[in-house]
UniProtKB/TrEMBL annotation:
It comes from Rhynchosporium agropyri. The keyword Zinc applies. GO terms for molecular function: dihydroorotase activity; metal ion binding. This is Probable dihydroorotase. PANTHER family: DIHYDROOROTASE.
Length: 302
């Protein structure tokens, strides 16, 4: 069977928005930022996992200025890093200065998350303030591995969904994004809740499965890629027309030495930024050929 796009010499697409972009800082940022447009993107929701993390509007705006010096034509949407220093007053002030969201990193679960959250209860006043002023809560939806509780990187996302349910139940008007969904369980959870809970999906989770990273560090990311049935659920969600899922690439750059064994833990992250939209189209093509979705579903008008 031939590809449904084989008859085209090329496709011209309007610029996309990528709602999960870790651009790093310093020399790595200088390398990565100029590549955003190459992937077909002109709007980025920038992640705050820096050292030190941006925990105030002034920190975040200074970071934005550094990015814009490298690429002034990119639209930048800012987030803060949820940290014990953030108060309801900081939330309201940040919102007034154009900060859209606050990112939750469970402590120790991914890159530069050592300043992250150990207890959600301590931040309930912050979440209430976010709910009242309309800020977005971005969740890295994983529990930290705990072998005594049978939690590993393979089920860390599914185990986290109870936390998502609790937060949504306690703060029903809080806008929540479950980032980089990787499982059928996560897709079903996001669909189960109302319009204030939505999810992002990466490009690489649309075409990789667990076998692809088990012996290849360059395909290793957090949350890890799961089973073929999970990938199918992600692909179907992207073309489902529910409005509950959108692109968040989590294109995570690392120095190549950090992706090679022998120097400690392998860094988690798959870098896709310069190839982002072509990778998504390729994943859709493959899914059509495999009978997972139809061409008609891919062409659904927005």
């Amino acid at each position: 069977m031939s590809s449904p796009l084989a008859k085209f010499d090329g496709l011209e697409l309007p610029p996309a928005a990528d709602f999960h972009v870790p651009l790093r800082d310093g020399p790595m940022m200088e390398t990565v930022v100029p590549l955003i447009g190459a992937g077909g993107v002109n709007t980025v929701y920038v992640m705050p996992n820096l050292i030190p993390p941006p925990t105030s509007a002034s920190n975040a705006i200074a970071y934005k200025n550094r990015i814009q010096q490298l690429e002034p034509d990119i639209n930048i949407i800012l987030t803060l890093y949820l940290h014990e220093s953030i108060t309801p007053a900081i939330v309201c002030g940040a919102k007034a200065q154009g900060i859209i969201g606050i990112k939750v990193y469970p402590a120790g679960v991914t890159t530069n998350s050592q300043s992250g959250v150990s207890s959600y209860e301590a931040f309930y006043p912050v979440f209430r303030a976010m709910e009242q002023c309309g800020m977005v809560l971005n969740l890295h939806g994983e529990c930290l591995s705990d072998h005594a509780k049978n939690i590993t990187i393979l089920n860390a996302e599914s185990k986290f969904l109870e936390t998502l349910e609790g937060l949504h139940s306690m703060f029903p008007k809080l806008k929540i994004i479950l980032e980089h969904c990787t499982t059928k369980d996560a897709i079903e959870a996001v669909n189960r809740y109302g319009p204030n809970v939505i999810g992002t999906i990466t490009a690489h989770h649309l075409y990789l499965i667990i076998d692809d990273w088990a012996d290849d560090a360059f395909n290793y990311c957090k949350p890890v890629v799961k089973c073929p049935t999970d990938r199918e659920a992600l692909i179907k969600a992207t073309v489902g027309g529910t409005g509950k899922f959108f692109l968040g690439s989590d294109s995570a750059p690392h120095d190549i030495s950090a992706k090679k064994s022998g120097s400690g833990k392998i860094a988690a992250g798959v870098f896709t930024q310069p190839y982002l939209l072509p990778l998504i189209i390729d994943a859709f093509e493959l899914a059509i050929l495999q009978g997972i979705i139809t061409t008609k579903e891919c062409l659904r008008p927005l």
